[in-house]
Amino acid sequence: MATVKIIAAVDLHHREADACVVREAIMLAQSHEAAVELVFVIPDQQNTYVQAYIPEDMRNQVEVDARKDLEAYAGEFDWNGVSCTTEVLRGVVYEKLIEHADELSARFIVIGASRPTVKDLFIGPNAARVSRFASCCVLVVRPE
Length: 144
Fold this sequence. Notes:
Blueprint: E1 4-9, H1 15-32, E2 34-43, H2 56-74, E3 84-91, H3 93-104, E4 108-112, H4 120-123, H5 126-133, E5 137-141
Parallel strand pairs: 1-2, 1-4, 2-3, 4-5
Helix pairs in contact: 3-5
């Protein structure tokens, strides 16, 4: 039988705020006998003018560092017997989260969201887009 997967989408730049995302994912995994995958997406602006001037080795080092940081971040939590893996992706955040959830046949995506502002009505935060377009259930968690 395939393991039920829960994706916990975290931003390594907002570790404290996203700790509630990880804790919710752990509780959800316990109640569904599931495994959690912590996912961090490196925003990639491949079509921007500036991107052409960033050396490839620097882009690769960012990913290596992100993997190390994500592993260390995962180590900060008490997983209470829940299996945890980590994954670093690169691209448009909400697109990559949705694609990855589909690839894993994830049952849930747990994602954080700050309080909406007026600009969110026009731009739309990643959490709103993930919850709108994901083919699995999405739990949006507010920072504590």
